[in-house]
């Protein structure tokens, strides 16, 4: 059962912490490890999702569109890590996936992210990172806050 980590890299402006809450949906495209075909669609799931495949429970269980093999995924418990200001500009693993029969190859950031402003502690909820950047204004300290140049990679 390979464990894959999702690492992100971004530049944080006046943001102390960026993280994914437990109910955030992950949008990932997978390659089947049986037939090596790339799935046509991304799977969308959260740590709160639960499905059964036989007697086992997973966050995601699906069949390959090409060979029909059963594949499954679980988010590794307590693997979530915030991306903090000190990580800015470098890759850091933010979550791990226990994948069976599939390999993650493409991640699409979306909405649901949470950021905490540096110094003021103002919290920004439901941030959408689909454009790989986000800009807002910290009204407490009257200065801009932002996330820029979001990149990702999967590690095994």
Q: How would you classify the helix and strand content by structural class?
A: mainly beta
Helix percent reads: under 10%
How many β-strands, per DSSP? 15
**Strand coverage percent:** over 45%
Q: Compute the number of helices.
A: 0
Features:
156 residues, 6-stranded antiparallel beta sheet, 4-stranded antiparallel beta sheet, 0% helix
Description:
The protein is mainly β and 156 residues long. It has one domain. Helices cover 0% and strands 56% of the residues. The chain is built from no helices and 15 strands. It has strands spanning 3-13, 15-19, 26-32, 43-45, 51-53, 56-58, 60-63, 70-75, 83-84, 92-100, 102-107, 113-117, 123-127, 134-138, 143-155. The strands form four sheets. The chain has a six-stranded antiparallel beta sheet, with no helix packed on it. The protein has a four-stranded antiparallel beta sheet with strand order 9-2-12-13, with no helix packed on it. A three-stranded antiparallel beta sheet has the order 4-3-11, with no helix packed on it. It is elongated. The termini are close together.
Short recap of the structure:
The protein is an all-beta fold. The chain has strands at about 5-15, 15-20, 25-30, 45, 50-55, 55-60, 60-65, 70-75, 85, 90-100, 100-105, 115, 125, 135-140, 145-155. It has one domain.
